[in-house]
Fold:
Amino acid sequence: MTDPQAKDAARREARARRDAIADGDRSTASAAVRDRIAELARDGHLPRGAAGGYWPLGSELDARPALLHLKDLGHAVGLPVSGPRGTALLFRDWDPQAPMAAGRYGIQEPAEGRAALLPSLLLVPLLAFDRSGHRLGYGAGYYDRTLDGLRAGGAVVAVGVAFAAQEMAAVPVDGHDERLDWIVTERETLRIHK
Structure:
């Protein structure tokens, strides 16, 4: 088991790197990630089913341009609804024109009444990643439990999306931490071989 202090130190370092990215570079990076996701879809590397994503929190990479492109390609697209800490996420259909509601952590979520989706593709936010497909999140376990549950029910492709500056040589991990299948940054697309 990883020392919790090591994970906390890695989180602080990763957050500082991410926060240091200039605003103009953020929008350029989001567009580049959208284009890389589009290329993966065009080349048949992504499943055709529903896609889950996230509403950006603070200085996270904005995955909404990629989600809108997937929607244009015919994917149903969902955003997460956060339940109690440590539980799996529920995804509701996202329509940019439909009302949103502030969720558990003040993050925008599709309003009550939007249809639930079961993603076969998940764009995953992160604080840090390494080239073996490990990610470091905020520590609440939402995405690890979500991926574990989705994978138990069938195939799901997990694509970590981040700024290249969020890469670390090795992310501290525990046995319950789920690995990613792909990592996409503004600079490159990494396929993770497990």
